[in-house]
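Thread: Newbie trying to understand structure tokens

Hi all, I'm a second-year student working on a class project, and my supervisor (Dr. K.) asked me to get a predicted structure for one chain before our next meeting. I've only ever worked with sequences, so writing a 3D structure as a token string is new to me. If someone could post the tokens and maybe explain what I'm looking at, I'd be very grateful. Here's the chain:
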Amino acid sequence: MSEPVGVQVGRVCPGCGREDSVPLRWGMPAVEDFRLAERGLVALGGCLLPGEEPILACRSCGLEWGRERDPTADEQALADLLGVQYADVVRALGRGWRRENAASDDGMQWFISGEPAQVAVGVDDLGFVLARPLTSWDGGRTDLLPTDGSQFRRDDLLWSPDVIAEAAEIIAARRRRSFRWCRTCRRAHAPESFVGAAGACRPCASAFTGVEA
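---
Reply by user tm_fold:
Sure, no problem. This is what the structure looks like when written as tokens:
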């Protein structure tokens, strides 16, 4: 199923402040929709579309809220650090940014985008840098490699969004070319989380092929 299910990471309810919201589905529900709703993975909004309908329902307080264009907490944090509007971030860097757990030793605060991670952006007092992310097989960061010529000023987001978008896409395209396809879970994985001898990602290789990951 391509539609999201389960608690939406980074979506903090404006009513109770908890990160416990699931997708809200409108229209005539299918059988699968009822099953997901019974498991608490989605909420059913009703058959009639209200127009500008909310997309999330908080399981904690029951509030129906949010729009597709709204930033997650991490995306808003990135915009705040850069000192621009969220729309300016989307125009130059796209959506889907997730904050790394901690700032690096040099004070750079890192965000990554893509699944698996394809682009990283680090923000410091001078501006920001685009980088190629390398992750460990369990999803934790092991390294972030800045690309030559990828240092930008905050003003570049406003005046040169196309230049930044092109630089980010070059990094993402190179990263995607290195992905490997796991024949067990049928998903793309970063090369550092893949076991070539087993033709599978590390979790699948460990669980199903007997290869130590």
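A couple of things are worth pointing out once you decode it. Helices lie at 31-38, 73-82, 86-93, 155-159, 161-177, 202-209. DSSP finds six helices and 13 strands in the chain. Feel free to ask follow-ups in this thread.
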